[in-house]
Amino acid sequence: MNAIAYQMDPLRGLAGLSTRTQEIPVAGPHQVVVKVRAASINRRDIMLMEGKYPVTMRPGVVPLVDGVGEVIAVGDGVTRARIGDRVTGTYFVGWVDGPQTQALGSQQYGANHDGWLAEYAVLQEESVVHVPAYLTDEEAASLTCAGLVAWAGLTKPVPPSPGATVLTVGTGPVGLFAIQHAKMLGARVISITSSPDKAERLRKLGADEVIDRKQTPDWENAVLDLTGGDGADHVIDAVGMITLPKSIAAAAYNSQVTLIGAFPAPAGAPTGDPLGGKYLALRRVAVGSRTDLEDMNRALAEHGVRPVIDRVFPFEQAAEAYRYFEEGDPFGKVVISLRS
Ligand SMILES: NC(=O)c1ccc[n+]([C@@H]2O[C@H](COP(=O)([O-])OP(=O)(O)OC[C@H]3O[C@@H](n4cnc5c(N)ncnc54)[C@H](OP(=O)(O)O)[C@@H]3O)[C@@H](O)[C@H]2O)c1
Predict the structure, then answer these.
(1) How many angstroms does the Cα of residue 121 sit away from the middle of ligand 1?
(2) CATH topology for 157-284?
(3) In the predicted model, is pLDDT for residue 269 greater than 90?
């Protein structure tokens, strides 16, 4: 019996999203076939669709890198998964551990390898990651991109000490996961957002202090005030070059500023010393390795933390899910469910 897979032709907006029939895949050597239960959208899926992502989308690729499902077939030589296992996949096809390289970074599910928006997905065995049993399928389909980059960004190279101040900038899924991870690690969290409604929800999620960037445009000074003039010990900037100068201004000497967001600088933004004269470590990260994902899943399970889900759409309404992601200002992950 034939199944359905979505495919994407980039540079055509949502007109590039269509369906095709999919034969149930056969697992090749060191591959597993997964019956997909849920998948979720990330900002990178929009960037890929628009041709604004560093890796080019292969026309006709099955989109989405976040997903979860049940293993239904394993190929010759597979030892990392068994039929019946509930698994997700890595972001990068072959990045298992150690430092990332350009070559490892260039091979990605949902970009140049078929992803998760289909009834069946095929993973290389080395990409397979088991998901914590307590999470629903929708929650488990939310970990690979936003969850992991927030984890790797916060914990590497040096995790925050208990009681350290973590500043989160941006409240997309990356920013929300960063708050949850920072609280798991015992940090004090200051979060920047854009509305009283979001501020309230951030406090419920665990943020100790929230600053509304619309009410307080000089929020970097407010962070300095809240930290006795010192600044934050760790900064997760989940917006991009728009906010980076303020993130650095709000950071302490010897702090760790991690740039995750990819929103570009506004036209005509001043250039100059990007570190604002401070002695600190600034780095840009690209998601994380399989080992990082496994570490994060163990930490989530230890603390029983659940990803924030904004809305779940049925598989047949994938285009509506993309539209809602782009226009709805969601608070949490936008998930597509394949369970009828
Ligand atoms: N490097 C990586 O590996 C990696 C992985 C995942 C995502 N990313 C990038 O990280 C960024 C965040 O992704 P996401 O999935 O969390 O969510 P997202 O949907 O891109 O949301 C970003 C959030 O940033 C805030 N924001 C937007 N424009 C802003 C502006 N002009 N000034 C200040 N804040 C602004 C908004 O929060 P408020 O309304 O609360 O201010 C918004 O909810 C994206 O650029 C994405 O491409 C990078």
Answers:
(1) 28
(2) Rossmann fold (3.40.50)
(3) no
Q: Given the CA of residue 193, which atom of ligand 1 is nearest to it?
A: 40
Domain boundaries along the sequence of the chain: 3-144+289-337, 157-284
* pLDDT tens digit sequence for 278-336: 888 999 999 999 999 999 999 999 999 999 999 999 999 999 999 999 999 999 999 99
Identical topology for domains 3-144+289-337 and 157-284: no
Identify which of 40, 42, 43, 285 to mutate to test ligand 1's pocket (most ligand atoms within 8 A of the CB): 43
DSSP state of 246: H
Is residue 272's pLDDT more than 80?
A: no
Please report the atom of ligand 1 found closest to the CA of residue 198: 40
Distance, CA 254 to ligand 1 centroid (Å)?
25
Determine the pLDDT at residue 169. 98
Q: Which residues contact 253 (CB under 8 A, 6 or more apart)?
A: 230, 231, 278, 279, 280
Distance 97 CA to ligand 1 centre (A): 26
- What is the pTM assigned to this prediction? 0.97
Are the CB atoms for 143 and 177 separated by under 8 Å?
no
From the CA of 175, give the closest atom in ligand 1.
16
- Phi, psi of 312, deg, nearest 5: -120, 130
- For the chain, give the mean pLDDT: 96
Ligand 1 neighbour 199 (Cβ under 6 A): no
Helix (H) or strand (E) holding 44: helix 43-49
Architecture of domain 3-144+289-337: Alpha-Beta Complex (3.90)
Pocket lining: 100 vs ligand 1, CB cutoff 6 Å: no
| DSSP label of 15 | G
